[in-house]
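Page 37, continued from 36.
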């Protein structure tokens, strides 16, 4: 049987409950495009669920491969230091699961091109 793959959209978090709406929208968009997709959101701090809780959701759904997608514009301290430590802890807790950390979304050329396109609208 092929591995069951899941995605966790991982963001910083905020005290403002409206802040997480774009992160949740990304997860909903993935589910709309791929109805069978197993995905959830997780936050480093100030917002629930945290990464271990989000991982537990996917493991409960029988995921054996989980990709964490950092919803950051660049590879700062959280993506470079904090996230790998958290994922290493998860790999220890769930040795049956393969974990992968994707490149932060802001470093994808498609995202930077879209950001430039949005900004260009203000030049007209």
């Amino acid at each position: 049987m092929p591995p069951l793959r899941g995605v966790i959209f991982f963001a910083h978090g905020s005290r403002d409950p409206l802040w997480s709406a774009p992160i949740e929208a990304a997860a909903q968009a993935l589910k709309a495009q791929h109805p069978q997709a197993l995905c959830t959101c997780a936050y480093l701090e100030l917002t629930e669920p945290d990464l271990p809780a989000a991982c537990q959701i996917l493991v409960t759904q029988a995921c054996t491969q989980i990709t964490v997608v950092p919803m950051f514009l660049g590879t700062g301290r959280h993506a470079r230091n904090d996230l790998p430590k958290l994922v290493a802890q998860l790999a220890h807790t769930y040795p049956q699961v393969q974990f992968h950390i994707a490149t932060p979304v802001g470093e994808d050329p498609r995202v930077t091109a879209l950001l430039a396109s949005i900004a260009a609208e203000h030049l007209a």
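The mean pLDDT is 96. Flag for discussion at group meeting. The first helix runs from residue 21 to 33.
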